[in-house]
Design a protein that fits this description.
By secondary structure, this protein is an alpha/beta fold. It is 30% helix and 17% strand.
Length: 475
């Protein structure tokens, strides 16, 4: 663990202020100038974000201001008043056994919306092992949050994570004060029943939670809906409803227009208009052993996609290895979430994997593209007829290596125009023989479930989907 902490010292801070998007999203104010705060990566950090932030008047200003090259701040005189408006501050606590999809989706979405999100550990250490085995590094200890005021406190679920949150007296005091002072608070999955109920914070509130814990809720106020907003309290059912939950929190913090924009950024706005999955040149993926999956990650990899795929595949008992292409195990995701990989890619290079999956994230894709070890692994994977996949913007890596020739594929809308037009399929997930690709972000659960179905059949995929509270369609 000490080696991990040593490696973490070279990473940029994760709870960096990105933009004053929160001020820009206030319905009564219009801010047309760029107001961007930037941090300088330490000289020991071997990566730099790309794609400069949009101006706040841009329709896509809340994509995320992850471009960092220097420490600077530009605040024109006419925008000083707007700049003084407070950024919304959000607390998301995690403990041993917290549901990783829920924690990461909430942090990612709320940071994209412009909130200052603090990921706080209720454990003695900042490194926290979550329910599916993923290790995240929190920004701070919960003890450092006790005297702070938050616009929102949002609790992820998971077991025993919800119990760990429940037993944290500091978090209990923070959340009770939040409710007493009529500021926003929320919980998802097991947390409404396991955490908020014993604290007495569900009184006179309509509430929902994960189906496995629904019987614990007071019958008179329990509702079987994916999302429930009740007088400052927002609850939801599970990992499969977390995008909806997070976007609802964005709306309550920043307004309806912000939530609609966030839905577009997460690719939720077109999800119902697209086929969920298409398959071409069907081949069998089943193997006579536990499928082994390699997911290489880099600084800047899209944290939602990384954690969602790992979480869902491990639920189906696939053997998943998260491998860092960096010089250390800790990796800083696209929205400042620190993820600790299982191993370095160079240490996994001699192993054989049934499937290699590339996550998206513009900066992460650029760094994966530069890895000679990964390039060699992908070439060998394809030449030996083994499976490979790519999410979001990462199909561009396969294209540059000539691994999309005569293949149907999909990807994020920002990069599909770079693919050969006859190869592009307008579906959330596309399977062509040994290749599987995905649009990314909110389509990622569908991608992971499609992989489970290919290796094990629809029965196991449907079972995992039920645990996620995610609608599964075999076709």
């Amino acid at each position: 663990m000490s080696s991990i902490m040593g490696s973490l010292s070279s990473l940029p801070p994760s709870n960096f202020p990105m933009t004053t998007a929160a001020a820009a999203l206030r319905p009564a104010r219009v801010v047309s100038a760029v107001i961007t705060r930037r941090w300088q990566p330490p000289t020991t950090c071997n990566f730099c974000y790309s794609t400069p932030p949009k101006t706040l008047s841009s329709p896509s200003h809340i994509r995320t201001a992850i471009s960092v090259a220097s420490t600077s701040e530009t605040v024109p005189l006419e925008t000083e008043a707007a700049a003084s408006l407070p950024i919304k501050k959000v607390l998301i606590p995690i403990g041993f056994g917290t549901e990783e999809m829920e924690a990461v989706i909430m942090v990612n979405v709320l940071r994209q919306a412009g909130a200052d999100v603090v990921l706080a550990s209720v454990e003695p250490e900042l490194e926290v092992k979550l329910s599916g085995g993923t290790i995240l590094v929190a920004d701070v200890s919960i003890s450092e949050c006790s005297d702070q005021i938050f616009d929102l406190v949002a609790l992820p679920g998971g077991m025993p994570g919800s119990v760990r949150l429940r037993d944290c007296s500091t978090l209990e005091a923070i959340t009770k004060k939040q409710a007493e002072e009529k500021r926003l608070y929320g919980a998802i999955c097991a947390a409404p029943a396991v955490t908020l109920l014993p604290w007495g914070l569900l009184k006179r509130k309509k509430t929902t939670c994960h189906p496995a814990f629904w019987h614990k809720l007071p019958t008179f106020r329990a509702v079987k809906t994916n999302l429930q907003v009740s007088e400052g309290l927002t609850t939801s059912r599970g990992p499969g409803t977390c995008f909806q939950f997070s976007v609802s929190l964005v709306e309550q913090l920043f307004g309806e227009s912000a939530s609609m924009e966030m839905g577009k950024l997460l690719l939720m706005d077109t999800a119902d208009d697209l086929s969920r999955k298409e398959e071409f040149n069907k081949v069998e993926w089943a193997v006579d052993h536990t499928p082994r999956v390699l997911i290489p990650i880099a600084n800047g990899s899209e944290d939602i996609e990384v954690v969602t795929v790992v979480d869902i595949l491990r639920r189906a008992k696939l053997d998943v290895t998260l491998a860092s292409v960096e010089r250390s195990l800790p990796v800083l995701g696209s929205h400042g979430i620190k993820i600790v990989a299982d191993t370095l890619l160079k240490n996994a290079a001699d192993s054989i994997f049934d499937l290699i999956i590339l996550p998206g994230g513009v900066s992460g894709v650029e760094r994966l593209q530069k890895s000679k070890i990964l390039k060699k692994l992908l070439k060998e994977q394809v030449s030996n007829g083994r499976k490979y996949g790519a999410i979001c913007s990462s199909p561009s890596i396969l294209q540059k290596q000539g691994l999309l020739q005569n293949k149907k594929a999909t990807g994020h809308s920002s990069m599909v125009s770079k693919l050969e037009s006859e190869a592009v399929v307008g579906s959330q997930v596309v399977i062509d023989g040994e290749l599987i690709t995905c649009r990314g972000l909110s389509s990622t659960p569908e991608f992971a479930l499609a992989i489970i179905a290919k290796f094990f059949g629809h029965g196991r995929a449907r079972s995992v989907a039920e645990g996620l509270v995610f609608p599964y369609l075999a076709n």
